[in-house]
Amino acid sequence: MVKLVMTEEETMLADMARGFLDGAAPVGKLREMRDAGMTHDAALWKEMADMGWAGVLVPEAAGGSDMGFAAANVIAREMGKTLAVSPFLSTAVIAATALRQVSDTRATAALAKIASGDVTYALAVDESVKFDPDAVQMQAKRDGNGFRLSGKKQFVVDGSLADRVLVLARTDNGLTLFDIPADRAGVSREASSMIDARDAARITFENVEATGEDVLGAVDSAMDVLKPALNAGQAALAAEMTGLSAGAFGMTVDYLKERKQFGVEIGRFQALQHRAAHLWCEIEVTSSAILNAGRMLDEEPDNAEMAVSLAKARATNTAILAVQEGVQMHGGIGMTDAFDMGFYMKRARVGAEWLGDYSYHAEVVAKHRGF
Amino acid sequence: MTMTAGSTESPTESFRAELRGWLEENCPEEMRDGGLTEDAICWGGKDWVFTSEAQELWLKRCAAKGYTVPTWPVEYGGAGLSREQEKVFDEEMARINARSPLESFGIWMLGPALLHFGTHEQKLHYLPPVARGEVRWCQGYSEPGAGSDLANVQTKGEDKGDHWLVNGQKIWTSYADKADWIFALIRTDKDAPKHKGISFLLCSMEQAGVETRPIKMISGVSPFCETFFTDAVIPKEQIVGEENKGWDVAKYLLTHEREMISGGGAGLSGGGRALGAVLADTMDVLDANTRADAMRCEVDALAIGLTLERYKDQSEAGQGAGDASAMLKYMGTELNKQRHELMMNAGGSDALEWDGPLGNRAGDWLRTKANSIEGGTSEVMLSIVSRRVLGLPG
Ligand SMILES: Cc1cc2nc3c(=O)[nH]c(=O)nc-3n(C[C@H](O)[C@H](O)[C@H](O)COP(=O)(O)OP(=O)(O)OC[C@H]3O[C@@H](n4cnc5c(N)ncnc54)[C@H](O)[C@@H]3O)c2cc1C
Ligand SMILES: Cc1cc2nc3c(=O)[nH]c(=O)nc-3n(C[C@H](O)[C@H](O)[C@H](O)COP(=O)(O)OP(=O)(O)OC[C@H]3O[C@@H](n4cnc5c(N)ncnc54)[C@H](O)[C@@H]3O)c2cc1C
């Protein structure tokens, strides 16, 4: 029985994050990076690490701030409002959660490096245009005491610059998750030119050597480690997309109050008022699903799957609506590159696909609901 | 989804254990079918005819424990449950698929308004009979010329010293012909600006000069009426709140009405059955389109249900929920209409017969069309959000 209110700590965390991001990562920062052809800002990530964000899910013993999943969602949501560029989801949420499922000294050391901002990760699962971990075909063939990895991954978010890659591959009796350095022999990375101006890559593995040491968790049992990490990543991505929706919506409502046509503010036209009000309702409802997902991950992680998929499904539809309405209600200016709304639209589309689209997550919900 | 099976020692959990035991012993078997149809509802009131012995027993047992209105204070007929305990109560009732023992406008609307605006004497006088299901209330807000523009009510009350003499007409008064009492918006100052001349008055339906005439609805039944006041006497003590400040009471009551309508028929809160499962009752294999639509409705229903819970949690935590009721009402009722369209779809031609193989499915479907009208239309809800939440001009 989770409680669906923001705690005082969470509200403070959100305010603090907002203050920092408005200064260090407003939408203009994404524009600058895009214009300069940059997809990662190491100095910015270091600052985030110093505030405890990189270690948000790392135990205190390993130098983390260990604030939990709901807190990670709070940070992600604030990042989404201004489209802050960082490896937060890939590294601080997904990789940290995966590593946390493993309690050896190597994992603890890796977590410490995540918390200090000294290492970044990417998760390589997709092999086709849709997210579907069960369909992974990439092979990790037994070779002496180790494995040889061969295959191709695409849409590896943060993949062209990450220091390490978590790769999902098929072994004799199931799926296995490998944690390997991105510069290992046989790994070749090709940065994708993404619509959202963020980092993603196509990665080819050619007979890449992996030892037992490189296996995260147990052989043939990737999901023990990966499933919690996916849940956490999907929830945080949903939170980011809801922040994105709120950001796009805020700009739109401001514009309705400002722009005059026919001698009055366009916000006086009921046709627009009702559409804006409808969008607000959708964002409110989605926010409940986000809060619930964070609470479930913190309090009942084994039962969190449906809550997470509900959050990602809702967040996806809401974000798509928010950016469409955002462009439409801005008229011609909404279509210009010089105006920020286009950045929201493009990030929303990428977020919609990453880690499972609407249909993928609605199916999960339906299965839990028995149909 | 928000359920914990654990048996920790917390006070909430010991309440759960106690409640579970009580329900096991006291909830009659026949009352454990979820009670999803209109005829399963127990409305109570002086003239209520119980549909079964079990229905009567279930009401009496719940009323004795305060479980018809679990969160009301004990002295007014409730069980005084905290928000935490209320969640447990809802979960445990849903777990055994128990019917609600009593539904009424007294519980949903008048009760919250009296608890907030009434005097202690009024609460003691009016609330316990509501909780016991002995007095049934109806709502006299709308008039032929005052629908969305509710503050335009014209039914007038002339000040006659110790009473008001009331004349005028209400319309769409649900169950006015079955109710024992009515709460009504009456214009007591015709010279004041329209929001400032209204009083919130209580009147017995047996009062001389009060008459009702049923109106037939598209679903074939006559749940609502015209209500006429002709020189009806309403004693001065039967006012809630101050004279000419009835609009405040009216609005407060509406927020409760809207929350109720938003969650009501939709089965949105935790225990509701999945739409896909309901559809599967009549469709062996859901076709791809129906299933996709059902999935979308289910995703939305769960998220709206969580939003209802979130606002309750927030208001308990003292975080203002603002005009959440308008949002919930809009989202919940629009969804409910879609759900019933799907149920008609899944039922195919069987659903097209009155009292056919699927019972009253068509009647229920038609009834849901009113959800986005009654208690304030969807358009009015969006205008409220636009003005009060978004601060848009006009
Ligand atoms: C790709 C592109 C190509 C174009 N090519 C040409 C061209 O070749 N020649 C040319 O002359 N123009 C061109 N235009 C301009 C286009 O016609 C205008 O953008 C359009 O008429 C809208 O005007 P606006 O941008 O000023 O938006 P606004 O009029 O400011 O509208 C903003 C929002 O308010 C809404 N709105 C405005 N008034 C009302 C109302 N009374 N009731 C309800 N809603 C209202 C609009 O629907 C919109 O959603 C082009 C625009 C684009 C995007
Ligand atoms: C089944 C049912 C039960 C009811 N039970 C009760 C009851 O028990 N007691 C009671 O007092 N009332 C009851 N009502 C009445 C209900 O509250 C009114 O029907 C409702 O408030 C709408 O008023 P109206 O019917 O006069 O429609 P109107 O106000 O005439 O509206 C007609 C249409 O115009 C739209 N509209 C009106 N104003 C605006 C605006 N400013 N902007 C945009 N669109 C607008 C509306 O949204 C609607 O679509 C019930 C109604 C129904 C259908």
Q: Can you walk me through this structure?
A:
The complex is a heterodimer of chains A (371) and B (394). By secondary structure, chain A is an alpha+beta fold. Chain A has three domains: 8-119, Butyryl-Coa Dehydrogenase, subunit A, domain 1 (Orthogonal Bundle); 122-222, Butyryl-CoA Dehydrogenase, subunit A, domain 2 (Beta Barrel); 223-368, Up-down Bundle (Butyryl-CoA Dehydrogenase, subunit A, domain 3), CATH 1.20.140. Chain A has helices spanning 8-24, 27-36, 42-50, 69-81, 88-100, 105-115, 222-258, 270-299, 305-330, 341-353, 358-368, and strands at 121-124, 139-143, 146-157, 164-171, 174-181, 187-191, 200-210, 215-216, 260-261, 264-265. Chain A has a four-stranded mixed beta sheet, covered by helices on one side. A four-stranded antiparallel beta sheet of chain A has the order 2-3-7-6, with no helix packed on it. Chain A starts with 7 loop residues before the first helix and ends with a helix. The two termini of chain B are 42 Å apart. Chain B has 394 residues and is an alpha+beta fold. Chain B has eleven helices and eight strands. In chain B, helix 4 runs antiparallel to helix 5, helix 7 packs parallel to helix 9 (324-347) and helix 9 (324-347) runs antiparallel to helix 11 (378-389). Mean pLDDT of chain B is 91; it is low at 1-7 and 265-271. In chain B, the strands form two sheets. Chain B has a four-stranded mixed beta sheet with strand order 1-4-5-8. In chain B, strands 2-3-7-6 form a four-stranded antiparallel beta sheet, with no helix packed on it. At the A-B interface, helix 7, strand 10, helix 8, helix 9 and helix 11 of A face helix 3, helix 7, helix 8, helix 9 and helix 11 of B. Bound molecules: flavin-adenine dinucleotide (FAD) (2 copies). Residues 138-142, 147-148, 172-174, 224, 370, 373-377, 379-380, 383 of chain B line the site of one flavin-adenine dinucleotide (FAD).
